[in-house]
Design brief:
The chain has 7 helices and no strands. The chain has about 160 residues and is mostly helical. It has 2 domains: about 80 residues, no CATH class; about 60 residues, no CATH class. Helix 3 runs antiparallel to helix 4. The longest helix has about 30 residues. The chain starts with a helix and ends in a 10-residue tail after the last helix.
């Protein structure tokens, strides 16, 4: 019986920590939207620590992605790219294909903005292959729009 209680207590503590991380993340998103980058960064870093403490890989990867958005907003795309790469690696470790797609698409945008079209195309092509494998509609819509922007007619551009 005591094992059931300790498991129940562990689940309760996990849920409380997760709620705290989600609340802090929301504050970070509000600060990011207001372009208060230092405050947003502080919130996202706090949420990241909690996600790491509770072993929430998906949440950890999402926080790394959010931190990359802060650096992108501050026009520090080199640091933003480093955080996106970390985010991709953690999403990959977690087996989160939609998350890897988002990270790859975002990395592609940064590469493109800096004139590194070949790396951008590799990121987007890889995102397409992953999105197609799990029929991730949101990523496929984004990639279809990118294909058209780049002169293609649709998703076949990525084949």
């Amino acid at each position: 019986m005591s094992n059931d209680l300790s498991n129940a207590e562990a689940v309760k503590q996990f849920n409380e920590k997760l709620e705290e991380a989600l609340r802090i993340n929301t504050l970070g998103k509000q600060a990011l939207a207001a372009e208060d980058y230092e405050v947003a960064l502080q919130y996202f870093q706090q949420s990241l620590v909690i996600r790491q403490e509770i072993g929430d890989l998906g949440g950890e990867a999402a926080m790394l992605n959010n931190i990359s958005q802060v650096y992108s907003g501050k026009n520090d795309d080199e640091t933003a790219l480093l955080y996106l790469q970390q985010s991709f690696e953690v999403f990959e470790k977690a087996g989160d294909v939609p998350g890897t797609c988002a990270a790859l698409i975002n990395m592609g945008h940064l590469y493109w903005a800096h004139g590194v079209q070949q790396d951008a195309m590799l990121c987007w092509s890889s995102a397409y292959q992953r999105a197609k494998s799990v029929e991730h509609e949101q990523a496929l819509i984004i990639l279809e729009g990118l294909a058209k922007y780049l002169g293609g007619t649709g998703l076949e551009f990525w084949e």
